[in-house]
Amino acid sequence: MLSIAFDGSAAPWEKTMTRHDKLQYAAAKPIGIDDIPIINLQETGGLDPLGKTSAELAKAASEVGFFYVTGHDVPADLCTKAMTASRRFFELPEAAKARIAVNQFQRGWMRQGLTHLEGSATHDAKEVFFWGRDVDADDIQVNEALPLVYPNQWPEEDAAFLRT
């Protein structure tokens, strides 16, 4: 068994997982904009000793599928740069994006029409760029094969804009 806790112990809100566990996702359902959970990181002052914020995040992700985060202290100009980077990536020619097609580690680009929500009669119309915390190939968590920990794939074309 692999623990997703960084210090080797599982916190109450963490599930001990193996690399073969099937992740569970929320069922697709319509939701009103006012029903999207808002999680304020300021409420804990950056600390979460009881796991309240972690539990809220896990609940929102598993029951709704997404959420808003406030009180994160990410400067507005950095958010703008990230949105610009996203637009620049998706404006790249398809051939450039195809060179970093999504791999078995969930890193890279997935073209439009490849995702299919469970229970849906059609494929999603979106294209996706999967990335995670930037780690080196020799990172201890990569070597331990922790779920969703693997080096990112970046396009050859001016990839620095994605690492904002």
Short description:
The protein has 164 residues and is α+β, with helices and mostly antiparallel strands. It is built from four helices and four strands, in the order βαβααββα. The chain has two domains: 1-73, no CATH class; 74-164, no CATH class.
| Broad structural category | alpha+beta
Gyration radius (Cα, Å) is 18 Å
The helicity comes to: 10-25%
- Give start-end ranges of low-pLDDT stretches: 1-14
Strand content: 5-15%
Order of helices and strands: EHEHHEEH
Distance between the termini: 34 Å
Count of alpha/pi helices: 4
Main beta sheet: strand number and arrangement? 2 strands, parallel
Backbone shape: globular
Q: Please provide the count of β strands.
A: 4
Strand order of the largest sheet: 1-2
What integer is the average pLDDT? 78
Counted up, domains total: 2
